[in-house]
Design brief:
4 copies of one chain form a homotetramer. By secondary structure, chain A is an alpha+beta fold.
């Protein structure tokens, strides 16, 4: 409902050498990664080489209710996935993808988006191959299995396939005997490794490790493939290091603040962004508040840097879930009011700096600011912890066209007027760069600049079968 | 729960030229075919060439509850399927199968079982192809698409594929613009065609046509392919007529008595079987009763032929569904009692002829006969409207081994003793032949004789990925 | 959907002295009584004097699914109820009713309908008493508890209350230490007693005993109260025997044919009704068929008496449940077709006698007969195993007004014309009397004659709070 | 799961004179009050004087899913309730309570707990009255209706009943034509009034008004009764003003910080409590963090007063709901980890002040503090924004015995050792008094002092029927 970017997925994998269970660990890890995708989820468990998979539409605790969990078999390996699911027929595209091939079964969980997926798909279709889904993930599976028939091992097949597929992909793959993690050469989406005693885990974000009592070890490097077998862990790094670029929005919005990605704490990155914002767009005010949840850290950073007191300006209804908005409540103002309420004591008769992480389409800023005005805020100065969002993203979010991007179609002054603030300030691209540099990071800032670490797709990636005749 | 053969599927297809809807028709047709498969079901609808599919585990009225039906889009073509699902991972194997290929999308609903499915699968896997299911149906889909890339039309691809695949298959296939029905050259499973004005329908059994007010036109012939487009209906018959053999159990048990299959009324065939049974195994008795539901027709036939009065001996609880038998009720006697009750007035102090369609494993005959004894039956003479079941079936039932077949391991006298009857009589294979001849039918009686109309599979058909390492 | 009378309830009770469980027995007994009420159901279990109750809308196997059954505590006593629920706010009226009073808790399950319920309710309301439901059952509970405060025992309170309440009631009542069964002085609704070793059970129909392996002992007599405690069973019979009259429709339609009520087999009563019908309304014909399920027994009786062969004319879809009829299928012809199909082989080119139990509103006879005509029946002669239904019922069915009763508004000839039959014959009231006499029964035939065994209510019984202002 | 007090309820009522709907408003208001009770909820709608009620176990958006909302009729009046439900048989006690009496129907929603409920219940039971629930709310309903039969109006009956019932109660009552709000003479639970144009609303907390766009008007005064009819709003205030005392825990924990209760902002009260805490228990430290959600405001207050920087120390998983903790995860440490994660960047190598609202049983403090230590906190100083909880509460929480209260059984030093902190400081009772005085409030602090504004119950309030024999 809120004007947010929608990321597509969280992935997880576990290989046990000593521990007894894999299902509860995967379940709780997915629960910790739930913010990365709320539409559907699934777990594939490897029972003595036979892979069982349960998946469905809904939140982790809906799909894996008591009865479903009871029915899950146990094993020594499992992978899990949660999905936002903006693309195609949801029920078919739910992951993990479980496929059978010449050497047995393979399960695959994927976060990201290819830029040459349709080209590979069409190439394979010409050979009479069939696809069950419209997802990139099946294309990746095919690319791997095409190699598998002529390679000596699944990891070799994965490495060869990575020469063919282009774009963003963090993968966790399970064969009858191996667990494999792989990350695209640009490292666009995060992926990290942890341990629990002798056992190995992989996850999109380190917060999943905290949830199950695992220890964070390191990030998977761009282009790296890590293979876990009962004999140990082996890593294959790319021969040629390509240009890298972790999605900047992982820091701005996607990731949980308690995660550490590619060496940088998400919370600290947001504090720092807030501090830069205070330097770039200072204002005289009485209180700094953040829009929950993703604006809070930057608001605290802004407050600390500016010396203006930090306040709690909004309470977000925490019983989220699938609240059904009745027809009569459908106006956006009503919808916002149901989820967000102002703490009047904080803003009444005050000059308020309101910090949010970003504006994408700009659809909910007006009603949020109206809430502040109604609660008695004297002035409202909006500060955004990211630069103007003006270009499409090809790497797994739901912003594939610039048509609805408010900043692509309006100046900052126009936007300020549209949403009704006294002043509006965006973080500069330069501040982003400083921030990245400070953390030793290389970021993809394509959505702000149009420059991507890998070539964008050559044409619309919608498969033929999804177009009406 | 009862000792019955489990058939695998019912299929349905509709092509509208004049009518407005296809979903309610498919829904009600599947409801009429529900006896052919109760584990899962699905409907694929063609909306201007884009195919949408909804499927799930459960009965038709569970999977397609009010909410699900409301969400279904409407179109001019649809296919539907209901499945018993004895094989493999149910959720993946639920049909219709919807796949995407070079020329667009294809949906397929299949009843039957291949005898060379694993061989074709392995051949394809060697080329790096991947399978999402362990079902034969995906093998058929692949066989068709392999041809499709070099054929001018989907119907040509289907006809070519039929030269490769062996075994039992009644298919309803939907492409972006065509609806196709095809039946294996032996005609092992039923498939028929009907009309509703200008519109064409296909179904496993004619009772589906009655349910939606359609008119039965004719059976699809063994080896025939029928193609429906907006320009009309076209039929392709096999150049060489192979040996045919409709599954005898379609008459004995699978089909609904109100269906007409390959020119013969199922009800009449059962009446006739009962009459032959009376001739072959006469007995002095006071009343003839049938075991509901599939023994009733043969019981009436036995009564008419023998002159012994027909009676209503059992009431079956009609609120079937997924009744949960509590641990304390788990003994078979208790379980039988919950579903079946004797009408004492009919059997008390009487010599009773009890007619059933068949004994497969023989697990519930003893408790059923005990019910009659407890209700005061003086004598119980069991008569079976089919010969002893002694050989495996390779064409889509769940009897794949002779291990648990009571008649494969015991003489008639031993069985009579085991189940506690005063006499036991099976229909002879010769009577079956007479029955077939009378109807102009060629039947597969492999389960009684070991002679099949097509070669049995060369080896166990379980795919590699379903075997533990 | 079919034109049937709707009865309101089935009741059950169990008192264990030796056995270990009461929940599975109650569950399976309710499942056997499901035909008496499909809208809702419930079970109350007595755990050491504390009564727990679970109830809900739906069939027995829906309300008591695996999870719900698992959660039920076990005890030595339980009562159960299934309800049709034509009256008032369903969710509040679901039974058993569990109430708390001066002496502890009481659970009550009731089948029937009072004729002075509103008068008692208003009397109590004047004293400031509150009601939670609009059901008679709460009035009965109040009548008992009003006595309880001045009586030495619950059974005395029940007996006193029975002097106050008028109309139809078969009750099973549970106190912290006792299980009580009571039947109104007219014996309008059935109630019987059985045993399982040392344990005692009560049920609306004997078929519930068969389902759980209990032995039928006897019917509860009109006006009798039976009390079970750990010390044994005690019976209180009425001092003055009033006029009695078991509802004739229990034999015609409500009860299961395998039940025995007040000494008469329901199946035999229906056979006999069919035989009388053949005597009163003979016709030259080729086959006699019954409308499933309640017309089958009388059809067999007609066939035997007339010498015309009995045939199986219809197949009823056995996957009943809550099939959702889509808007486009809503015409009655379509709706009938989905549930009922003709066996053409039985009726084609034949003169058919079709026997049904009754016509109430006459809404589905026309489409059923059309099915026969469409299947090729040459003549259709309808025979009804009951007299014309012309008067309201005040004792627990849903026919409370004569407005929609076809026979109250049309002659037999007119009805024959309306529903499209070649001839129509109703059983005579005299035949009913003969039938009752043969079984030693006294029947309430008020719906045919307007003469009731107890005075009808003086005014509309709708409570005040259900009328809009 | 967390060591929190459980409050019992939220109430809401709406009377429309101009607006069109009442169901969406009540639904969204309950959603805003969900924090007051998550076990069950319900809505009663008045349709032209006939009251319909839907209620069930679960969160508001579960009980009122799309289908349930669609089925709700609309009217001009409605009341709603959400319940924590610690007492008795949940399904019977779900509110609103809908009862029928001499003058029609009455629906009642109640927050609080009587201290003489059992005495009144037993008094009524002696007159032969029956109870359906074990809740106080039914006692209140009875007390009102007992008066109603001799009073001229429902409001007079309510006022008279208030002379009989003692303890905590905030009531919203609906008759066929009136909406009534009433609050106990001590004002123990909150209740306030708002408007939407000509329409009137009542709610437990003002945040419910914000959610539906209503305007807060004023609190209902202790002992006040407000009646809304189509002719307007009328207030009855108590003749004698009794000693008052709003539950102090409404400020400490129960209420949402964005609510304003009896003139004081909850957020500001918590900020102030944090400030007093900093004065009473200063410590040298690097960062102040709050335990989400109820410790955050006081933490900010502590930080501001002490000058130590405020930090975000924990991320709480926001996909709460009914997460199923698997047996293997059942240790408390695992359970805490799933819901709460430390932001390492905030606490690593720091001296941390961790502020929480209270410790009740002390069961989760140890694992929470262990999380901080594991994340590298050098020192942990716990500060509690309330005094030691040492006495039972009789007014609607789940703390009815001192047995498990950690502070009732241990000194502060012992507790510090048990939970593993470097120092521990509770807010003093004197600070509570100062806080109350500052807000012009009179508070019930019985749980800290044993002094209550009204006499505690004379004996255990468990009804007879809930005790085993």
């Amino acid at each position: 409902m809120f004007d947010k970017l929608h990321e597509e997925c969280g992935v997880f994998g576990i290989f046990r050498r000593s521990g007894e269970t894999v299902v509860p660990e995967t379940y709780h890890a997915l629960y910790a990664l739930q913010h990365r995708g709320q539409e559907s989820c699934g777990i594939a468990v490897n029972v003595d080489g036979v892979i069982n998979c349960h998946k469905g539409a809904g939140l982790v605790n809906e799909v894996f209710n008591r009865e479903a969990l009871m029915k899950m078999p146990e094993g020594k390996m499992a992978i899990g996935h949660c999905l936002y699911g903006s693309i195609g027929n949801a029920s078919e595209n739910i992951q993990p993808l479980l496929i059978n091939h010449m050497k047995g079964a393979m399960a695959l969980a994927h976060n990201g988006c290819l830029t040459n997926g349709l080209e590979i798909r069409e190439e394979l279709e010409k050979k009479g191959m069939i696809f069950h889904t419209s997802s990139n993930s099946e294309v990746i599976a095919y690319a791997i299995i095409q190699e598998r028939v002529r390679c000596g091992s699944i990891e070799e097949a994965v490495r060869n396939a990575m020469k063919v597929i282009k774009g963003a992909y963090s993968l966790v793959i399970m064969s009858p005997t191996k667990l494999i993690a792989a990350r695209d050469p640009q490292g666009i989406r995060p992926l990290c490794m942890g341990t629990m005693g002798e056992d190995v885990v992989f996850a999109s974000e380190s917060c999943a490790f905290n949830a199950i009592g695992a220890t964070f070890e390191r990030d998977i490097e761009p282009g790296e493939v890590v293979v876990v077998t009962k004999d140990g862990v082996k890593s294959y790094k790319p021969e040629v290091r390509e240009k890298t670029g972790l999605c900047v929005f992982e820091y701005i919005y996607n990731a949980r603040p308690d995660s550490v990605i590619d060496g940088a704490s998400v919370h600290e990155a947001r504090l720092q962004a807030g501090a830069f914002l205070a330097q770039e767009h200072p204002v005289e005010a009485d209180v700094v508040i953040g829009v929950p949840d993703s604006g809070l850290d930057a608001a605290l950073g802004y407050a600390r840097e500016s010396g203006i007191p930090y306040g709690i300006g909004f309470i977000k209804n925490k019983y989220i879930g699938r609240t059904f908005i009745q027809p009569t409540q459908k106006e956006r103002q009503d919808a916002v009011r149901i989820k967000l309420n102002v703490v009047s004591a904080t803003v009444k008769d005050k000059r308020v700096v309101m910090v949010d992480d970003s504006i994408v389409r700009g659809t909910t800023s007006l009603p949020i600011i109206k809430l502040l005005r109604d609660a008695g805020a004297k002035e409202v100065h909006m500060r955004l912890a990211s630069p103007p969002y003006i270009r499409p993203c090809y790497f797994g979010t739901d912003v594939v066209s610039v048509e609805n991007l408010i900043a692509a179609n309006h100046t900052v002054e126009e936007i300020a007027k549209i949403i009704g603030v006294d002043s509006l300030g965006y973080l500069s691209v330069e501040a982003c760069d400083k921030l990245a540099k400070g953390c030793g990071l290389s970021l993809c800032k394509g959505c702000f600049t149009g420059e991507y670490p890998v070539d964008p797709p050559k044409r619309d990636q919608t498969p033929r079968h999804e177009k009406p005749i």
